[in-house]
Amino acid sequence: MRHTVTLIPGDGIGVETSAAMQQAVAASGAQIDWEMAEAGAACIDRYGTPLPDETIEAVRQTKVAIKGPCTTPVGTGFRSVNVALRKTLDLYANLRPVMSIPGAGGRYDDVDLVIVRENTEDLYAGIEFEEGSKAAQELIAFIDAQGAGSIRPDSGISIKPISVTATRNIVQFAFDYAVRQGRHKVTAAHKANIMKHSDGLFLHVAREVAQEFEGKIDFDDKIIDAFCMSMVMDPSQFDVIVFPNLYGDIASDLAAGLVGGLGLAPGANIGHDCAVFEAVHGSAPDIAGKDLANPTAQILSAAMMLDHVGEHACAERIRAGVRAIYAEGTHLTGDIRRTERTSAPVSCSAFTAELVKKIEEQ
Ligand code: NAI
User: Fold this and answer.
1) Residue 343 lies in a domain
2) Most exposed of 51, 53, 322, 346 (fewest Cβ within 10 Å)?
3) Model confidence over 297-322: pLDDT tens digits?
């Protein structure tokens, strides 16, 4: 069956990893008609925005997209394209499977967990008040008048909303995913001991949802700092982990680091109507345009996309090809930790050419 998928290459290494991803998907035998769309810093000059309406409309039409990373300036400038896309299309669930790939230089060889990150609220909601602004001063005065604590007058403020609705949606998603994928445990990570009305609410709702799955899926919870230590010491103890937005963002990179780095970590943003697949990593300006990027993360994101549209055999062919190239160790990019078994690093295009062969052999 043919499928139309929106492809947003994005900025930086997204251009290179997207081209590699298209080759890998073609080698898998999947029949994909790519509909190209633009987003990111590179299209501001042309559209006056990093996220043109045409791109949002394209995803609404095809309902499935795969995107490369988009650059977001730090501290100043426009807000993140990713955050805007996730909010506009209500892509409320961010799904990030993390798995050891033998030969990929990871610290552990027994990691098989899934990060489920709430994608629409928390400190990522983008509700911010600039230091010295009238709104910030009024907010500080209001909080003072409530007796809720005092904030220094020279503060900038970011708001952390966590709702029952979004928490219920994401925890339900995590449990449903665990049931569908034959997993056995969901862990909720939080800082409910300190932030009682936001993380506390998250934990309370997670416990309520967990009761509906009692006897089918185990549930436990971890305070986020203890969670980080446990992850580094023994990631094999985790199965599905559900997070509020910000902790999920940080934990994803931490988890990626345990299995070999950002070059290997795929992801998906899933809503009720649309799904946008993308690697965990950013646009990597330090290596962009140099044919050095590792396209594995975006290629594994494409495998998730193929599963999503029902092309499981093609998805599995891609994953088997990826396992084969890492097991062999002769054609790996420079980000992969070298061992005595791995040869000198190769370019993104040389990696892709070899991976295409491996996928075709499956
Ligand atoms: P980054 O993920 O782009 O890079 C961090 C480090 O990992 C760099 O040294 C980079 O070279 C390396 N790296 C990342 N992906 C790699 C790959 N596939 N192969 C080889 N090496 C790789 O994170 P950074 O530098 O913090 O962010 C750069 C830009 O990307 C920022 O503007 C940020 O806002 C944006 N970003 C976008 C995301 C998205 O669109 N989903 C996600 C994360 C960051």
Assistant:
1) yes
2) 53
3) 999 999 999 999 999 999 999 999 99
For residue 142, report the distance from its CA to the centre of ligand 1, in Å: 39
Q: Residue 272 has what DSSP assignment?
A: S
User: Residues with beta carbon inside 6 Å of ligand 1?
Assistant: 13, 69-72, 82, 262-263, 278, 281-287, 293-294, 297, 335
Q: CA nearest 128: which of 163, 158, 98?
A: 158
Of 182, 177, 249, 171, the closest CA to residue 210 belongs to 171
Asked if residue 307 and residue 253 are part of one domain, the reply reads no
Catalytic residue among 11, 199, 221, 249: 249
| Ligand 1 mutation pick, 252, 281, 335, max ligand atoms within 8 A of CB | 281
Looking at the structure, tell me whether residues 15 and 49 fall in a common domain: yes
Q: Is 63 among the residues known to form the active site? A: no
Half-sphere exposure for 119 (CA within 13 Å, toward CB): 31
Number of structural domains in the chain:
3
Whether residue 355 is contained in a domain is answered as yes
CA distance 139 to 149: 12
For the question of residue 144 being annotated catalytic, the response is no
**Domain carrying residue 282:** 1-97+262-362
Shared domain for 148 and 168, answered yes or no, is no
**Is residue 180 located within the same domain as residue 90?**
no
177 a catalytic residue: no
Is there a domain that residue 175 lies in? Answer: yes
